[in-house]
What does this fold into?
Amino acid sequence: MPPGLKQRFPDRVLVMTTDRCFGACPHCTRKFILGKSPVVDTPEGLAACVDWVKRHQKVRDVLLSGGDVLTLSDAEVARFVDAFASLPQIEVVRICTRAPVVKEARVTLRLARLLRRVGRGKVWANVHVNTAAEAKRAGGAAARLVDCGIPVSSQTVLLRGVNDTPARMLALLRALSAARIRPYYVFQCDPVEGLQERFGVPLARAKEIEAYCAERIGGLALPRFVADLPGARRKLPLDLL
It folds into this structure.
C-alpha cells in the first residue's frame, strides 16, 4: 500500500493528505502520529494512491483526512477530490474537517462551488462537532456546502465535562439539525492511554444519554452511539458492549 494511504475496511480507504490541523484538540488520537506518519504530499504520491484504489475495485468510499485536508489550498483540495471522484468505482469522497467549527471562513462559497464541480456529485463533508455552541458556529459553513449540494454530517466524541449530560447532548443534536448538519456518530472516547482517564465517559452513562435523546428527538436528528474499538470489523453500538 502506498505511503499515506490507510485501509481498515474493505470498501473504504483513508488518505492522509497532510499532517497540519487548524487546532490541537486535546482528545485527538491522531495527534500521536502527526509528523511521524507519511502523508500524500506530492503528485507522484497521489498518483500511486489512485492507482492502488483502481486495482482494488471493492473500494467505493475515500476519506480525505490527515491532519485536516482544508488546511491545504483550494487547488490542492480540488486535486485530491478530482483524482478520486473521477474513478467510476468511487461513490463517495469525504472531506474530513474541523474547519467549519474552528475556522468557519475557510469554507468559502468559492470552495463549495469548486467541490461541487470537481466532485461529480460524490462529495460529502464530515465535520467534528462536540457542543451546541460549536454547531452554531459551523452553521454558515454548513449552509454554503449544503446549498451547493454537498451533504454535511457530524461525528461527535462523548467527552467528560464537555457533552456528557443528557441535556447538553440533546442541545447539541438539536443545534446540528438546525444548522442542516446531520448527526452521524457519537463515539465513546478511544481507549488510548491518557485520553480515557481525562475524557472517558462510563458506558452506563453513555447509554443513559443515548436513551434520553432517543425519547426526545426524531430519527433524523438521532446519531448512532458507538465505540470504535481496535480490531473490530465495525463500529460497535453501545448495546453490544
The chain has nine helices and nine strands. The longest strand covers residues 152-158. The radius of gyration is 18 Å. Strands lie at 5-6, 12-16, 61-65, 92-97, 123-128, 152-158, 182-188, 224-227, 236-237.
